[in-house]
Amino acid sequence: MSEFDLIKRYFTRAAPSALLGVGDDCALLQVKPGAVLAVSSDMLVSGTHFFPDADPYLLGHKTLAVNLSDLAAMGAVPRWATLAISLPNADEAWLARFSAGFFALASQFGVDLVGGDTTRGPLNLCVTIFGEVDAAHALHRSSAKVGDEIWVSGRLGDAALALAHLQGEINLSDEHYAVCAQALHQPEPRVALGLALSGISRCAIDISDGLLSDLAHILDASGVGANIDFSALPVTPVLAMYLNTPLGRRCLLSGGDDYELCFTVNEHQHETIKAISVQLSLPLTCVGRIVAGQGCVVLDGNNLPINFETIGYDHFR
Ligand code: ADP
Ligand code: MG
Prior knowledge:
317 residues; alpha+beta; CATH 3.30.1330.10; Phosphoribosyl-aminoimidazole Synthetase, Chain A, domain 2; 2 domains; six-stranded mixed β-sheet; four-stranded mixed β-sheet; 10 helices; 23% strand; globular; binds adenosine-5'-diphosphate; binds magnesium ion
């Protein structure tokens, strides 16, 4: 199969939202009047971000999902994507599954694939995503203010727990693995939440590298510190069973791949955020506060700072 047949068969779909989609030298895109473009790229590399034998359908989903998550964290409406893909060979069964997973999520979020690049090489998947946002309402990392509440969506740590299982660090039962594997392989980008936060929050980030690491980006960019209440952090019953182990705490505090949102709001918005949680059927949990200073302190049930070395956290960094 030629490169052009491959693009035509697996990556060319109607793109009604574009003036011009796949097939010419460039796509042509019209942004809604008054909006600005929000643009982000994420690359997934075989052996680094996924196992070489990963299910191609799930990989298609995740390749787009991690990019949608960036738009969610900016409060942007997803519109278009491009896909640069490097493939060792034209494995049609693999391509059919990969594109099915990709386009299933794309149509769920109203995203049109409008271009890309296809080459032979080690398996490597790079999406650039384009969304629209009202510049005044974009959720910047630099906008956290002292006194703001810190909230997170969903539950944290499951993806990292599933990965620990796949890497042989722990042995989850089939039932428990199924719960965590969902978070690892099929993260749900929190686009609706990002949009609901428009005008309510000014500051958000998506949790791709772990809560402490991603929150640190907000703190650095905003010139503030944070207190996090360890016992408030939202976990599934599966992760809860591991919370008294260093591995469980590491998954919760610094496990990657959750793709939940962490955002800050003025405390006056507390009830509004609870209402958004009900409206979206999405758990939203207040886990701490922005404080003056720098860095993040994690507090135990007695409001005392947790010493990470004693809980074996550093060991796993
Ligand atoms: P060029 O030589 O101008 O870079 P290509 O031959 O690489 O063009 O691509 C032909 C068309 O197919 C272009 O519109 C390009 O955007 C699109 N395209 C190439 N690869 C992909 C892909 N993996 N997914 C979607 N569109 C693609
Ligand atoms: Mg090209």
